[in-house]
Amino acid sequence: MIRLLQLEWLKNLSYKPFKIFSVIYFTVLIALLFIGLVDFSIGNFTINLKEQGIYNFPQIWNFTTWIVGLFKIFLGCIIIFSICQEFTNRMFKQNTIDGLSRKEFIFSKLLTILIFTTFSTLFVLFVSLYLGYNYSEKTSFNLVTQEIYFIPNYFIKLFTFFTLLMFLSIVLRKSMFVFLGIFALWFLEQVFNVLEMKVFYSNYPNISNQELVEKVQNEFMWSKFLPLESTSGLIPNPMMRLQIAEMLGGKFSFQYPTFNLVASLLWTTLFILASYWILKKRDW
Amino acid sequence: MEKVLIVKNLTKKFKRVAVNQISFEVQKGNVYGLLGPNGSGKSTTFGMLLSTINPTSGEWYWFGEKGTTPKTLKKIGAIIEQPNFYPYLSAEKNLKIVAKIKGIPYSRIDEVLTLVGLLERKKDAFKTYSLGMKQRLAIASAMINNPQVLILDEPTNGLDPEGIIQIRELIAQIAQKGTTIIVASHLLDEIEKVCSHVIVLKNGNALYCGSVEGMTSSMGYFELKCENNDALINALQTMNLFKKIHIQNEVVIATIENDIAAAELNKKLAQSGIYLSMLQKKKESLESQFLELVKKQ
């Protein structure tokens, strides 16, 4: 395992996209997490996210993981580029000939993904703790730990997403196609979602919007278990938790997304196995 | 003789049959040429033996063990089609990666770089190298584990004459140490200069596997010249030693049927009053032998 880590280290350390995207990612991350300290003016209306309570325990976990989660694609780019270049430079073939097995190849890429995910998760954890203890209205131990499960959820969300990128990179082998592939997948999921909603609506012709939202939340729907949707469900959009939303009558209800968790874990297993299978079956 | 590689009925079908039921053996310490025109299945065969291509059927044994495992590959050095390295990394870092994969200490890196004369350029990125240097780095990389078998697929492809000579000398140097080498090429004179054995492929079929000398039954031919070529031809015809006698550019060429030493022939001709101004016994070039073999099928 140490050997595979050293191998990935050698491959990535001098790789330009690796340096560029790492710098961008962590710069953006820091900027975003401290966004609450800045006043925004929309017309003559000023919003300060800190005053909206984003740094308050326990919802700070929801806010930080959700915001940072939006920018996972920057780390994803490193994974896409570094895996695709193995194929465009024919290095997978050369590595194989030199004596690296398919299993070791997949495993070394998973190690990289694991390190990125762990690093990003720890980063979010520590920055959230720092921000929370500095700016939260209350910092009792109970409140701090109440929704800390967003951190492991964030870890799984990232890991699943990155294994999806690994899978697409191995299938498509060109980074441009991988980006198109991700977009196509997202698009198809949306279409599927809309279609399923339409069918769902037709079952309840006379129902208020509020009730409908609640029904949709609790109902079993296939589109909730597609790869992108199931990972995004791990960390719901926290904007309804802003104080301004509460004042406007928004109601935030949230149950721990066990189904999404199971779905994500199944997807990531599937992506890893399918990646291995493709490496094995294809002629290089 | 120890057999390094045994191939039995190896077959690969893509949309068409690329390699058809080929069988051959490679003995330790020899230099083998894998001959064949473009598209005859050389690279596909190597691909299967190096585990990058899944065979349709057939089997093979490396060092007596069935198939190709990562462990086997660590005893082999191979260059396929073109030198593959991470373009953004230096030669040294690229070789570190190979050393890591093969489980070889880094101390070997400088040794193999010295062998191919690239030691001074080791800190430069691979993409700044000329084609000849890339090819030499590929050989260095293949040599890093002191392989028992070296596989070279078109090692002189795209090189200038100087580069070709450098690579050829390198191959000869490595062969002297007793390393088994299998080299594929469609440049026959190239193979002729380095190989003791050949495997001939055509349209995915193995036509021949054995020593270069045994490739055809031909014993060679004489090139002769004297004042009166007609008298010479007459004298040769009466000897019943030659299957074909003809003149080419004022030189009489007599293809041998029953072997005779050059000195013996000279003596016989002198006895019949013909004094030669030129006498040479020659073997057919690999090229003509190869063409003969390929034509026959």
From TrEMBL, chain A:
GO cellular component: plasma membrane
Keywords from the named record: Membrane, Transmembrane, Transmembrane helix
Pfam families the record matches: ABC2_membrane_2 (PF12679)
GO molecular function terms listed in the Swiss-Prot or TrEMBL record: ABC-type transporter activity
Membrane-traversing stretches: 20-43, 63-84, 105-131, 151-170, 177-195, 258-279
Protein name per its UniProtKB record: ABC-type transport system involved in multi-copper enzyme maturation permease subunit
Species for this entry: Flavobacterium croceum DSM 17960
From TrEMBL, chain B:
Any Pfam family: ABC_tran
Sequence similarity: Belongs to the ABC transporter superfamily.
Protein's name according to its UniProt entry: ABC-2 type transport system ATP-binding protein
Organism: Flavobacterium croceum DSM 17960
Top-rank lineage group of the source organism: Bacteria
Keywords: ATP-binding, Nucleotide-binding, Transport
Molecular function terms from GO: ATP binding; ATP hydrolysis activity
Stretches of the chain forming a coiled coil according to its record: none
SUPFAM superfamilies with a match to the protein in the record: P-loop containing nucleoside triphosphate hydrolases
Cited InterPro entries: AAA+_ATPase, ABC_transporter-like_ATP-bd, ABC_transporter-like_CS, P-loop_NTPase
Residues in ABC transporter domain copies: 1-228
